[in-house]
Write a structure and sequence with these properties.
Blueprint: E1 10-14, H1 19-30, E2 34-39, H2 43-52, E3 55-58, E4 70-73, H3 82-89, E5 94-96, H4 97-105, E6 109-114, H5 119-132, E7 137-145, E8 150-153, E9 156-163, E10 178-181, H6 189-192, H7 195-207, E11 212-216, H8 220-225, E12 233-237, E13 243-251, E14 254-261, E15 264-270, H9 275-290, H10 295-304, E16 313-318, E17 321-326, H11 331-345, E18 349-353, H12 358-363, H13 368-371, E19 377-381, H14 396-404, E20 410-414, H15 416-426, E21 432-436, H16 444-453
Parallel strand pairs: 1-2, 1-4, 2-3, 4-5, 6-9, 6-10, 7-9, 10-11, 11-12, 12-13, 17-21, 18-19, 18-21, 19-20
Antiparallel strand pairs: 7-8, 13-14, 14-15, 16-17
Helix pairs in contact: 1-2, 5-9, 5-10, 15-16
């Protein structure tokens, strides 16, 4: 254990319902700490922690930090939070989630997965493969992994796999032994300001890797950013790279591809769709090979990998309509997923999209229309502000107007209830309905399914 955990017994999480916070809370509980937490809406993650015996309360109050030795907060929690104020008043250390993650990773063999897109799936892939290879890693995933039955795998304390989130520079607290960088695009410009600042942050992160840096060679910008890295590099990809996938075949939602290795070529298969997932898988294979996992174990792990919740998450079918939920929220992700849906399902696609954060909507205002062209019908919700109070002059209706200049199939729904009524009344046998976004639009998918079932 490193400094911020040394001598601590009771750890309190403010915002414990978040996917990243709940993962850390679950891990510390398993390691014998007294863990408590609070959240405005603890949600499913809070409920699952309660079932483990963690004390979780809805809402924030000064009394919630009573007895705590350390308070952990997310970037969305401000100093005006009553629990933060109370902790500071009584000299209880307050740290960000990324500081706790660094405490768990930096003094052991840490494997960090960074990149604008694909972090969560790649983290789960690396963890699942290493577990299959007998390495018994601790894994902290930024999403629910069906393979682990959780967003956390409890394993060895000296081998930790986790996501390296670039938002607000969080990943710069990490000094991993091994890192994957999947790709780099301008993102979180509310914090970074310019794309050059984003690139500089990834460049610094690459310089903090202590053992081996694994990067996607198909991303020319990324390769330029990391060219001065001081540690050995392994590249991977489809078009180029030290480890490349070829002979890619996609059939019935499963992918098969061949990878050329020094000892010969090997075929891998997995139950995911899309070229982006081929890249994610090959990056994970590169790490596994670096750690000398046997190819047979890698093949078995990929074949049994079940993905991550909210990534092409099939919720069910009713009245002949397939309902799918997905986390995509950046224009690049949206375009990739719509293409994947087209290829995999070959159905008319009705998309309920919830823009995520005002700053992202403003930064990529002109990019959403072409990204959303893959939908046959588009129902646009109001913007999910998340941590933001500044609207940047953005509204869901305004975005719909911008998109309508290129896409006549967009309808501004505004609320989830309105979108539900529209899509259920218009969906036809053979269609698919996709709910998409990083906010609470995920709650709409089961409602759509339930209403369709009433027909």
């Amino acid at each position: 254990m490193t400094n911020i955990l040394a001598g601590r017994r009771h750890i309190h999480f403010v915002g414990v319902g978040g996917i990243g916070m709940s993962s850390l809370a679950r891990l510390l509980h398993a390691r014998g700490f007294v863990v408590s937490g609070s959240d405005r809406d603890p949600g499913d993650q809070g409920e699952s922690l309660v079932r483990l015996g963690v004390g979780v309360v809805a809402g924030h109050a000064e009394s919630n930090v009573k007895g705590a030795d350390l308070v952990v907060i997310t970037s969305a929690v401000g100093v005006d939070n009553p629990e933060v104020s109370e902790a500071q008043k009584h000299g209880i250390p307050v740290v960000k989630r990324s500081e706790l993650l660094a405490a768990l990773m930096n003094d052991v063999r840490g494997i960090a997965i960074a990149g604008t897109h694909g972090k969560t799936t790649t983290t789960a892939l690396v963890g699942w493969i290493l577990a299959a290879g007998g390495l018994d890693p601790t894994v902290l995933v930024g999403g629910m992994s069906p393979n682990f039955g959780s967003n956390t795998r409890m394993g060895r304390e000296d081998l930790v796999v986790g996501e390296a989130d670039e938002y607000d520079g969080s990943f710069l607290r990490l000094h991993p032994t091994i890192a994957i960088i999947t790709n780099v695009e301008p993102e979180h410009l509310d914090y970074y300001g310019t794309k050059e600042s984003v690139y500089d942050a990834f460049r610094q992160f690459a310089h903090q890797v202590g053992g081996c840096l694994v990067t996607c060679a198909d991303d020319a910008v990324l390769q330029h950013i990391v060219r001065g890295a001081r540690v050995p590099r392994v590249t991977y990809g489809i078009e180029r790279g030290d480890i490349r996938a070829r002979d890619i075949v996609e059939r019935d939602g499963r992918l098969a591809f061949t990878v050329e290795l020094p000892e010969g070529s090997h075929t891998f298969e997995m139950g995911l769709a899309g070229l982006h997932n081929v890249r994610n898988a090959v990056g994970a294979v590169a790490v596994a090979l670096h750690l000398e996992v046997e190819v047979a174990h890698i093949q078995a792990a990929l074949s049994s990998f079940s993905g991550v919740a909210r990534r092409c998450d099939i919720k069910g079918e009713a009245a002949g309509v397939l309902v799918v939920d997905d986390y995509a929220h950046h224009p690049t992700e949206i375009a990739a997923m719509l293409q994947t849906f087209r290829q995999r399902f070959n159905r008319p696609l009705r998309l309920v999209f919830q823009p995520h954060t005002y700053s992202r909507t403003a930064a990529f205002l002109d990019d959403f229309a072409p990204a959303l062209e893959g939908a046959d019908a588009l129902y646009l919700l109001d913007i999910y502000g998340a941590r933001e109070s500044d609207t940047y002059g953005m509204t869901g209706e305004g975005l719909a107007q911008v998109i309508s200049r290129q896409n006549p199939h967009v309808a501004y729904a505004g609320t989830a209830d309105r979108a539900l009524a529209m899509v259920v009344s218009e969906a036809r046998d053979g269609d698919m309905v996709v709910t998409m976004g990083a906010g609470d639009v995920t709650k709409l998918a089961p409602r759509v399914l339930a209403e369709l079932a009433k027909r």
